[in-house]
Design a protein that fits this description.
With 147 residues, the chain is of the alpha+beta class. It is built from three helices and eight strands. It has a single domain, classed as Electron Transport, Fmn-binding Protein, Chain A (Pnp Oxidase, Chain A, Roll). Strands 1-2-3-6-5-4 form a six-stranded antiparallel β-barrel. Helix 1 packs across helix 2.
Length: 147
């Protein structure tokens, strides 16, 4: 598992682009695991601060209960459609996955995310393929093209 600061140090341009995609919209999507093992999708706000990624939630929320039971979590950035006139200018979409570690707070429940995967997907140049970049602590950054 890694902090955001470690990803920024290892792959500064990749981290900068991923963060810009996440910061482009206020609301993100968070996936947690329900008591029965099925997935749950929730809206969430995310904060990049002091070299880490944080999320907060109400202590009585269902997503909080999910994370108390099973800390595995994934986030998806907001994503708009690629521009039809030039899809290569599309910002793309991004994902972060890892484990949520509770941080003591007074009113809300705050979690720091220990990251084990970051993915960025965007339209390649020329606009006849997708570029998929993924970062993992043990493999580093891998770039693939999908046609």
């Amino acid at each position: 598992m890694s902090s955001w600061a470690e990803i920024e140090a290892a792959e500064p341009e990749f981290a900068k682009t991923v963060r810009a995609v996440f910061d482009a919209q206020k609301h993100k999507t968070m996936a947690t695991i329900r008591r029965d093992g099925s997935p749950r999708i929730s809206g969430i706000e995310m904060e990049f601060s002091h070299g880490d990624v944080f999320v907060g939630m109400m202590p009585a929320s269902v997503k909080f209960s999910d994370l108390q039971r099973d800390a595995r979590v994934a986030f998806h950035s907001g994503s708009e459609d690629p521009p039809t006139d030039d899809p290569t200018t599309w910002r793309g979409d991004a994902k972060i996955a890892g484990r949520a570690i509770e941080v003591p707070e007074e009113k809300f429940k705050k979690f720091r995310i220990d990251i084990n995967e970051v993915v960025l997907i965007r339209v390649g140049r020329p606009a006849d393929h997708l570029v998929v970049e993924s970062w993992h602590p043990d493999r580093g950054l891998i770039r693939r093209e999908r046609r």
